[in-house]
Amino acid sequence: MISSQKKQHSARWQHMEHLTNSLHEAYVTLLCHQSMILAMNSSSVDPLQQYETQLEVTKKSFKMVFGLPSFDKGTFQTSDEDVKDLEILYRDILNLFEDTILILVSKDLYKLQILKEMTMWMSEDSLYQQERVMVIISRVLRFASRKVREHTSIDAPCLGVLAAELSLLCSHADASVTQQASLGMYYLLCIAKHQSADSQRDNPTKQYEHGNHCFLTSDSEFRPEVLQQDKTKLAQCIGQSLSPSLLTDFMLHLLMKLSTSDQETASKAATVLKLTLKYHAQKVTRVCQMVDTIYKQLKENSSHFMKDILLEVVTLLAQMLPKGVVFQLMYYPVPADNALMLMWQAVGSEPQVAPQVLKEILLVLKDKPWEVEDTMQEGRCFILDVTNMMPLAASQALCMLLPMGSYKKTVAQFFPEILMALMFQLLYISQLRVQPQDRPIYAREGLRILLNCSGLQEVDTALKQKYCWSHICQTYYYQDGVNLIARTLCEYNFPQFPETLYYLHKILVQGPRRSEEHIIIVIFFIKILDKFFKDPLPELFLVLLRNWINDSNPEISKLSLQKITSMAPVVHKIENVRSLLTSILDAFGSKDETVVTQALLTLRRLVDKLDKVNYSSLCTGIASSYFHLMDHIATLPN
Question: Boundaries of each Maestro-like HEAT-repeats domain copy (predicted)?
């Protein structure tokens, strides 16, 4: 027994001797590191190089200091004078490290960046995640919160990321770490609020006591104990205090934490991130970057747990910032991969944002696929180009969103806009100079889905039986296909015709459009008038027909004249019939023979039904027009 006691005593003192040597070596090394770090402050080295060098040395000091055994657990008897000396030396080492950081921050608040790095180093090894590290971080932040009062403006771009790390530590398993993290978070928010002059002016600052210290706060007090206990309050305070740029950094950092292999950390990050988005998403300045980060994480084959969290974040972003989310999702190339399809489904899960989402998609559908100069042939042409595939991506998005139950009401509301936007895209696709099998068919499929989810399945079936869908993308067939689609819709008495007619009239009177789009609108407009309105037409519609008689596009002129011809039996009921006939006479001057021929046929039909009073008043003008027409026909090419 005596021999065993002697061995234990000997081993203990050997350990003490080794520990003593380690502490002395650490203290000396730390003094050298401090000298190197502070010497850099007084040198003329480039600021970036200076910071990087100081950070590298600080990291070595950190790993050395916090790799030492702790005296906090009563490992040795406190009555031992030698042990007490070692404890004092250990505290001196900690103080020396802390003093170095304090001096750096006192010279330049930008170097609060080192605290952010310290939280990163802590996460590399669980041994570092101890109260002693957090005590230093909170003390330095406390010092900085007082230091900022001396400055009118400060440069501390790390606050967003540092706040993200502290928000996770505020719910650490070790209560002592949690306490220090919440205290550090409080000081950080004080610093952040000082950066905003508007915040200072709108919310006059005041002081209150916490323990033995006096803190700076605002009217919406965010006490450390509240930040520690209430995640909702924590998220609200962070959102209120950080500037938009810093808050975006905060959210992006938490977003990156979602992909960590530590599920507990990922869950904590998800909770804080979702709460912050819920209350302060409108302050996010880089939505596209956040969406892109989620997209890349989903492509990395994340676990089901991670996918669910990431898609929840997408849904929240879409609720608060639909424009930025939709724009970024349409930026990705087509066809959509699995990750992108999941994100579109997440966007489409919320019916309250469906109108905003569809509006953004429709804006993109107004554009053509990339238009470039054709170096091999004269003029311009449409080709598929990776630099601008957004209209195709928008058509593809509609294919995914339209069938969703959450979009049923919104699709009904936007039926005319979606219908015409997809018709225009079909036109552009028919003009693409690529092989038929390579042509993207999202617009065609989107149009079919629109019909089916709008109760128009019979229209889709009829068009399929008439081989419309298989030929609609062919250039030579496209205009016939438009006529067939418009006619079939009318044949089946589609119930959306009032909204469609109103929309068509609205865009017709808004002003000039691309000529190829204009004729599509006119075809649909006239087909609906033929089906659902009895002649004579109201002046509201008749004025458009009168203006189109002399349109620069001969196809539109003929369509207008044909429609006017159909009104011959009721010509005597038409208001301003003289003005209408005068417009027809003007068409005799057209350079297109088919227009002149149609004008002659239309005039003949109308005159045949015209009453004597109107005919007699127009007789001279008609005769004069026929006289000039003879000269005109003589000059026309054979």
Answer: 129-358
- Sign for the pseudo-dihedral over CA of 515, 521, 525, 528: positive
Residues 508 and 542 in one domain: no
Final residue belonging to a domain, choices 272, 289, 309: 272
**Are residues 449 and 402 in contact, defined by beta-carbon separation less than 8 angstroms?**
yes
Find, among 163, 61, 167, 161, the residue nearest to 104 by Cα. 61
Structure-model confidence comparison of residues 632 and 143, the more confident one: 143
Is 336 among the domain residues? no
Dist CA 396 CA 398 (whole Å) = 5
Is 400 domain-assigned? yes
Does the residue 107 lie in any domain?
Answer: yes
What is the structure's pLDDT at 636?
47
Q: How far apart are the first and last CA of the chain?
A: 130
| Type of residue found at 288 | C
How far apart are the C-alpha atoms of 122 and 112, rounded to whole Å? 16
Would you say 164 and 253 are in contact if contact means Cβ atoms under 8 Å apart? yes
Same domain, 105 and 249: yes
Cis-peptide, bond into residue 204, ω within 30° of zero: no
The tokens for 257 are 């934490």
Q: Last residue of some domain: 470, 489, 522? A: 522
Q: Do 232 and 377 have their domain in common?
A: no
Q: Are residues 557 and 433 in the same domain?
A: no
Q: Beta partners for 209?
A: 214
Please tell me the distance from the alpha carbon of residue 244 to that of residue 58, in angstroms, as a whole number: 30
User: How many helices (H) and strands (E) in the chain?
Assistant: 31, 4
Question: Could you tell me the sign of the dihedral formed by the alpha carbons of 599, 601, 604, 609, in that order?
Answer: negative
Torsion-angle region of residue 379: left (phi > 0), alpha (psi -120 to 50) or beta?
left
Residue 516 corresponds to which amino acid?
E
pLDDT in tens, 548-580: 998 888 999 999 999 999 888 888 788 778 888
Work out the number of other CB atoms within 10 angstroms of the CB of residue 324: 20
**pLDDT tier for residue 143 given thresholds of 50, 70 and 90:** very high
Q: How many domains does the chain have?
A: 3
pTM beyond 0.85, yes or no: no
Instruction: Assess whether 41 and 164 both reside in one domain.
Output: yes
Report the 10 Å Cβ neighbour count for 223.
16
Asked if 440 contacts 334 with a C-beta cutoff of 8 angstroms, the reply is: yes
For residue 94, the enclosing domain spans 19-71+78-272
**Do residues 518 and 602 both lie within one domain?**
no
* 500 and 541, same domain (yes or no): no
Cα distances (Å, whole numbers) of residue 628 to 146, 219, 367, 547, 557: 93, 86, 44, 22, 20
Looking at the structure, do residues 542 and 518 belong to the same domain, yes or no? no
Asked if residue 545 belongs to a domain, the reply is yes
